[in-house]
Known about the structure:
Layout: E1 5-8, E2 15-18, H1 28-41, E3 43-46, H2 53-61, E4 74-75, E5 78-86, E6 109-118, E7 126-130, H3 131-136, H4 140-146, E8 150-154, H5 156-159, H6 161-170, E9 184-188, E10 190-192, E11 199-201, E12 208-211, H7 216-230, E13 236-239, E14 246-250, E15 254-258, E16 267-275
Bound molecules: succinic acid.
Succinic acid is lined by residues 84, 94-95, 112, 114, 126, 256, 258, 269, 271.
Amino acid sequence: xxxxxxxxxxxxxxxxxxxxxxxxxxxxxxxxxxxxxxxxxxxxxxxxxxxxxxxxxxxxxxxxxxxxxxxxxxxxxxxxxxxxxxxxxxxxxxxxxxxxxxxxxxxxxxxxxxxxxxxxxxxxxxxxxxxxxxxxxxxxxxxxxxxxxxxxxxxxxxxxxxxxxxxxxxxxxxxxxxxxxxxxxxxxxxxxxxxxxxxxxxxxxxxxxxxxxxxxxxxxxxxxxxxxxxxxxxxxxxxxxxxxxxxxxxxxxxxxxxxxxxxxxxxxxxxxxxxxxxxx
Length: 280
Ligand code: SIN
């Protein structure tokens, strides 16, 4: 489409999109091109965007209804916008482990939009892994084993008052609203993307705790293998942030990892999360 450029970041996943101003409402042709790039590349990036929280919400809403996170405190006046801050005295960041967003929900996120307000002079990159490739590269025997298998996803590690207090001590971004009962839901280990029809591996080391009908201990060997396999370097890309850059990722077929290698520097991001469907 005239004026819009799509520039892949790696052979596996990710593309930078040029020629789009996300601060303005995209016309139909622009929206179609952006949406297709999102489906084709699983995560897309835009640089030099000047966005208020309202712009960010309006762009996210093109994909669906926005989520209000149960545990991360939103910014004032915008319950749908999360601020992920790592200040100069913090040692913990948000998302510093491979995951897909809020998979403990019954209807986990479709996508997330992350906007860079302040970035460190070096470090703080985000990695993404293509979960279609993770699935497709498994052997036929493993695909057969996983077919029909479900796993429990839980937010237990961050929902209790004790877990939140331990996290909040090291992090500038605060957890709140503790619950004693974790939110848990069962999802297929291999899901079919509702828009592309492709199969993707759907487990992650943060929220996936065990397979249906099995104990945590019994699940560990296979779950551990799948989590390691899912993020092999050849399935990934790595995005170097600049201020005012935006990443939009598809949580239905990717995992991401925020690299925590910039102690002593500030990094501040805003995120909106788009609600998705029940995985099948
Ligand atoms: C996240 O959404 O997990 C955080 C990603 C990042 O800050 O790079």
